[in-house]
Amino acid sequence: MKALKVVLISVGALLAALIVIPLTILAGLFVWLKLTEEAEDEDLEIEDTV
Length: 50
What we know:
Blueprint: H1 2-49
């Protein structure tokens, strides 16, 4: 019974990691894209004024 509990906890932790890690990566990419998009907009504004 103790071994079954350990296996279930391990499977649960693995499933949680499989869900959390990709979501974290996607959130990081989204933030990076937003930051680079704002930087590009600022660069374009500077070029327009020159």
